[in-house]
Write a structure and sequence with these properties.
The chain is of the alpha/beta class. The chain has a single domain, classed as 3-Layer(aba) Sandwich (Rossmann fold). Helices cover 44% and strands 16% of the residues. It contains seven helices and seven strands. A seven-stranded parallel sheet has the order 3-2-1-4-5-6-7, with helices on both faces. Helix 1 crosses helix 7 and helix 3 packs parallel to helix 4. The termini are far apart. The mean pLDDT is 92.
């Protein structure tokens, strides 16, 4: 059976690397990363050792808008000789600043990285999925779309918009065998969130006591769900939003 091709943006990060490792069992991989080539090379080598049958290639460069998305998609198609069957959108950074006390351009950039690039990659790659009558799109959201926290106006707006976009897109393309879903993580331990977790623990005491399951999440907690949503077995699931936050958005477990 021919291996499908998955494009994973943010493919060298904690969650992205976990998704890539799991998908490599039966997918070839195009891993997009922003700037850390060394980490991307390490992820690539680890996957190739664990899954020798997988073709893995990495693609560097920041994704800030439609042109960047189109460039990435073109490079992937050229290098593999085919278009991705699976798209996992994990692009975008963190910018936690109070809205009034920060430059608007920073908020615009964050929205572009998270929302515009997600929409752009879907737009660029959907035509090929449409023709082949198969596609799996998983957009990474966040519990911040529903669970408000100070300093996250633009981040919350972008992630909430990703949910609305994904549900509407799912309705438009379902008849062609394409599914579109959202996975919305809570606090997951990665190199990107490590400083945030340290700050929260310092200022709020025992952070884990605020999460009902009593632990900060691991990348594999998200990766396993993404892997399933990208599979043939998930063909009847579309337009869904899955929260992976250890129950944090349910409320304070000590209340």
């Amino acid at each position: 059976m021919k291996r499908k091709l998955a494009l994973v943006t943010g493919g060298s990060g904690g969650i992205g690397a976990s998704v890539a490792h799991l998908l490599a069992d039966d997918h070839d991989l195009a891993l997009a990363y922003a700037s850390n080539q060394q980490r991307a090379e390490t992820v690539k080598q680890e996957i190739e050792i664990a899954n020798p049958a997988a073709q893995v290639r990495i693609f560097g460069g920041r994704l800030r808008g439609y042109d960047d998305a189109a460039r990435l998609a073109g490079n992937v198609k050229r290098d593999f000789g085919r278009a991705p069957d699976v798209l996992v959108n994990l692009t975008g950074g963190i910018y936690d600043k109070l809205f009034l006390g920060s430059d608007f351009v920073c908020h615009q950039q964050l929205v572009d990285e998270h929302l515009t690039v997600t929409m752009a990659l879907c737009h660029v790659l959907l035509r090929d999925m449409y023709k082949s009558r198969f596609g799996r799109i998983v957009n990474i959201g966040s519990v911040s779309a529903r669970y408000s926290q100070r300093g996250q106006c633009s981040y919350a707006a972008a992630k909430a918009a990703i949910e609305a976009f994904s549900r509407t897109l799912a309705l438009e393309v379902a008849h062609r065998g394409i599914t579109v879903n959202v996975v919305a993580p809570g606090l997951i331990q990665t190199y990107l969130t490590a400083p945030l977790i340290a700050h929260l623990e310092e200022s709020n005491g025992d952070l884990k006591s605020r999460i009902p399951v009593g632990a900060v999440g691991k990348p594999a907690d998200v990766g396993g769900l993404v892997q399933y949503l990208c599979s043939e077995q998930a063909s009847y699931i579309t337009g869904a939003v899955y929260v992976v936050d250890g129950g944090r958005s349910l409320g304070d477990p000590s209340s």
